[in-house]
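User: Can you help me understand a structure? I only have the sequence.
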Amino acid sequence: MLEGRDWFSVTGATAEELARLRTVAPDDLPKRYLDLLAFSNGGEGPLASEPYNLCLDSAMTVADTISSDNHGQADLEGFLIFGSNGGGEYLAFDTRRRIPWPVVTIDMVAGGNCATIIAPDFDVFYDRIGIETEAA
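Assistant: Let's start by predicting it. Here is the structure, written out as tokens:
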């Protein structure tokens, strides 16, 4: 997983941590997302497109964020935040849309009204992880 890519991994999520996330998250979390957490329960690396960096939240951080209603910000309802770019933007699934959920960036100050789709689904997003620039 992420072989040959620039990714700073940590120990993978336990079965219990993934089970807790599945319990509090909406149904149909992408398999590839869960596989990534099983491989690296957090971590950081470049992205081949905007926002150019991924700081992946751990399964428990995501579960706690869901349980606390997305940091108490009402305008984030319908977004499942799974990380950030490390510089002021959340990375999230837009669960207000049909499956597969698009991956969006959300300015941490402006909130959900400024969500911008950066990938049509997690599979496309995953293919950009650990790669510095897109192929020409």
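Now, to help you interpret it: Residues 30-126 form a domain with the SMI1/KNR4-like fold (CATH 3.40.1580.10). The chain has one domain: 30-126. Let me know which part you'd like to focus on.
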